[in-house]
Amino acid sequence: MTFHMTARKSHDNASLRRNGFRSLTAGLVLLFAGAAFVQAGDDSTPNQSGKMHRSAAVSRPTAPAAPAAPKRVKDQLSDSEKIQRRITFRYENPATVRFTRSVSTNTAIGMYDETTRLIDSRHLKPTSYAQRAYRGVNNLLHAAGNRAFLQANGLSPSRATVDAFRKSLSRLAASTPVRTAADARNLMFRTMDLAGRQLGVRPTTVALEFVYGAAESLDKYSTFLPDENGRQPSASLKDHVVGIGVEIKQHDSGVLVVKPLRDGPASDAGIQRGDIILSVNGRNLKGQSLDYAVDLIGGAQGSPVLLVIERDGRRLSPLSLIRQRVEIHSVSEVRMLDSQNGVGYIKLDTFAKTSSEEMDKALWDLYRKGMKTLVFDLRGNPGGLLTTAISLSNKFLPSGSIVSTRGRNSIDNTSERATFERTWKMPLVVLVDGNSASASEIFAAAIQDNQRGLVVGRHSYGKGTVQTHFPLSSVAGNLKLTTAKFYSPNGREMAGSGVEPDVTVDVDSNEVVSLADDRDIQAAVSIARGHRLQELASSVSRMSAGNQFD
Fold it and tell me: At 432, which helix (H) or strand (E)?
């Protein structure tokens, strides 16, 4: 296997304009046929593993989640449907709308220029200037009939106006050569003028769609993340947020509480897993996006919020909470599964800044309770910090490779090996599923390839790429770009392949059951009692005698 990455070959510009926009226009005719505009829908837009719930404690969520709508498997969606759904999510997010309204035209243009330079210098496989610019045009062709976009921008054009705009913009793009960054910039300016005259779209909105278009032309993970009022784009990696402290997901009637966060206002007030939040401060959540709900639940520390909750089909009395600082714990559960045989259990929700310290505490707590074997649960863990994945791997690997990364630039090429002088030697079972991604896959592959333990569950997500957040100087926000791919200790490229478990357990990953009824846990405990796992641990101990914790 070669680690060398070759740049993506650019399309012939004239061919792209001739054939690409003919196909695009034809696609739009089919897509927009009928009396009504395209319906807003859902999209598995770049949350790393497609995990569809949010920590509403509340900072800004990292990516939009799917609202209640007719569901289709993402891979079955057409390109036009995927673009429509991205646009819907973007403009149903109140934070994005506020950001768009707060940015001046000159600032947005500066942001576009900065985005272009960063993509050119840092993305793993940059697309051509033509692909980036035409994606921006494509976004606007779709946005012209997107209800969320029109509502967010205060527009109500007639169907005839939308059709005329689309035809004019398609002709403009097809007749405008784009070979250089200056050409792409010129097309953006001409699109600003056209969109303003025919549709009433602000120049700032056009520039921002060209920014989003440039990022979205690269891969499904690269995007722009506005940083509203100092809020960070990745709340799940912070050690605290401000809000009521609940993890939620979409529900037909509002939002469903996946779990209240420990020591948060929601937990203290008795909000339970499975509760449905119907309204926030008198605003009904039925049919609204998850981002809309998160935005309403969040707010300033010390401010009140009024919730209406349904539990077991019964509407409870309105509940008033005070938003507070809530500590986020990446280790969500620590317990003994089988005290007689010394089987301990740790659940890690994300690879955050505090995870290493939390893991140390959890490991020593279980050790004092007699742990002899560890079940480490990474199911549903979408990843997090690369440095944390390396640190946690180091706690269990006495030697060997952990992970390597390869990018376009030397700064993105790394090779990490186990370096800790003392490590834990107990037999180890790692649980994964289809929502275990990125840093979870790095850890699982490191354990598997080094024969340090057994991986149990289902095939992991297969993300396999590294994203870097670049703070922009032009605006308060980050450009998230894919800068490298990562490889397992055996040199296996993880992108698209993921981790195949040593022991497969056939269950429905979306099923919510207690630990006692959890078949993955049952399989892990059975394996923990068996000889195979013990033999792996003994082999590692012999190789590193005297350098491991008992």
Answer: strand 428-432
Assign 3-class secondary structure to 98-117: HHHHHCCHHHHHHHHHHHHH
- Of the listed 219, 449, 502, 520, which one is catalytic? 449
CATH class, domain 239-327, is: mainly beta
Looking at residue 517, its pLDDT comes to: 84
Q: How high is the pLDDT of residue 284?
A: 94
Cα separation, 465 vs 453, whole angstroms: 24
For 143, the token pair is: 């946005």
Alpha-carbon gap, residue 406 to 415, rounded angstroms: 9
**Per-residue pLDDT tens digits for 238-280:** 677 889 999 888 899 999 998 888 889 999 999 998 999 999 9
- The CA distance from 129 to 178, in Å, is 7
Sign of CA dihedral 476, 479, 480, 484: negative
Catalytic residue among 259, 347, 463, 485: 463
Active-site pick, 438, 440, 460, 488: 438
347 annotated active-site? no
- Please state the CATH superfamily assignment of the domain spanning residues 331-463+498-549 in this structure: 2-enoyl-CoA Hydratase; Chain A, domain 1 (3.90.226.10)
Give yes or no: 449 in active site: yes
Give 468-498 pLDDT, tens digit per residue: 999 999 999 999 999 999 999 999 999 989 9
DSSP code for 408 = S
Residue spans per domain, the chain: 13-36+78-224, 239-327, 331-463+498-549
Low-confidence residues of the chain: pLDDT under 50: 1-53, 56-72, 230-235
Contact 336, 369 (CB under 8 A): yes
| Nearest residue to 192 (alpha-carbon basis) of 259, 140, 251, 149 | 140
